[in-house]
Design goal:
alpha/beta; 9-stranded mixed β-sheet
């Protein structure tokens, strides 16, 4: 059965790859013909949604992205986080440079305006300045403050340097929690960690039954320059960790409970010096 599933999904994925290639060519030809730059963000978001369908991901959204420009911060489990979050909100990602070379995902990330960063070389401050510029231009940016992927069972310590882009641009921060499960248990296939290769990891995901993915958009918070970056990072991490704990405890599994809990705020950040944002309804997508 797994081989039949794999063949069906590979066929769909190849068709999706061909369609995205044609779309990229069409957008480029149109730009050359009209001498105007086309905003690829909505196209990338549409492609992200179809990528999630090809991967067989069952996405459940709790809360909503803020209507105002925000700096999203999220825990990071694997490369599939990018199409999932990219399908739910217009986002510019911050990602390691290697992602830009991956098939399909790399192209989609580039079309979504991803800011790529190479390890080392003291790029963090320059990237922070770029993030500030994007936020001031009204573009949402998502960073992974853990700096790497995890097994999805906990949230690694957050690094605070890039988070300072929020108060320096006078932009709220919206924490996001993402978690993968199969049969009610943490999914051991989704994490992309260690020396795993993209192609082999993709095949393993395509071969298995659909995974449930829960994404919690917590209430946006406002920070100031007076809040130390270490304190801001620790508090945001705790909010994301609380969301992860609630997901794995099954708190969001009941649709009615989901709605009630989300309307009561899916994870209030208890920051004495920060101010909470808006609350949003629960949504679910296939």
């Amino acid at each position: 059965m797994s081989w039949l599933r794999l063949c069906a999904r590979i066929t769909a994925f190849m068709a999706f790859l061909a369609a995205t290639t044609m779309l990229a060519a069409g957008l480029r030809i149109t730009e050359v013909a009209t001498r105007k730059t086309i905003d690829r963000t909505p196209w990338a978001r549409l492609c992200f949604r179809w990528a999630c369908r090809c991967l067989g991901l069952e996405i459940h959204q709790h809360g909503s992205p803020s209507d105002e420009t925000v700096l999203f911060v999220s825990n990071h489990i694997g490369w599939s986080d990018i199409p999932i979050l990219g399908s739910l909100a217009p986002i510019r990602f911050l990602s390691k440079a290697e992602v830009g070379q991956w098939p399909v995902i790399g192209w989609l990330a580039r079309q979504a305006g991803t800011l790529f960063i190479r390890r080392g070389g003291g790029q963090a401050r320059r990237v922070r300045d770029r993030i500030i510029g994007n936020l001031q231009a009204g573009e949402n940016v998502l960073v992974y403050p853990e700096g790497t992927t995890s097994a999805g069972l906990t949230v690694l310590p957050f690094h605070g340097l890039l988070l300072k882009a929020a108060p320096e641009s006078k932009t709220p921060v919206q924490p996001v929690t993402i978690a993968y499960r199969r049969d009610g248990r943490p999914d051991h296939l989704a994490p992309f960690i260690g020396d795993d290769e993209f192609h082999s990891h993709l095949l393993r995901m395509l071969r298995q039954p659909s995974a449930r993915v829960d994404v919690v958009f917590h209430a946006p918070v406002h920070s100031t320059d007076q809040v130390p970056s270490g304190e801001l990072a620790a508090r945001l991490r705790q909010t994301v960790l609380d969301g992860l704990t609630r997901i794995h405890s099954g708190e969001y599994d009941n649709p009615v409970t989901d709605l009630l809990k989300t309307e009561d705020d899916p994870g209030p950040p208890h920051l004495p010096s920060l101010h909470g944002g808006q609350r949003s309804p629960d949504q679910s997508t296939g």
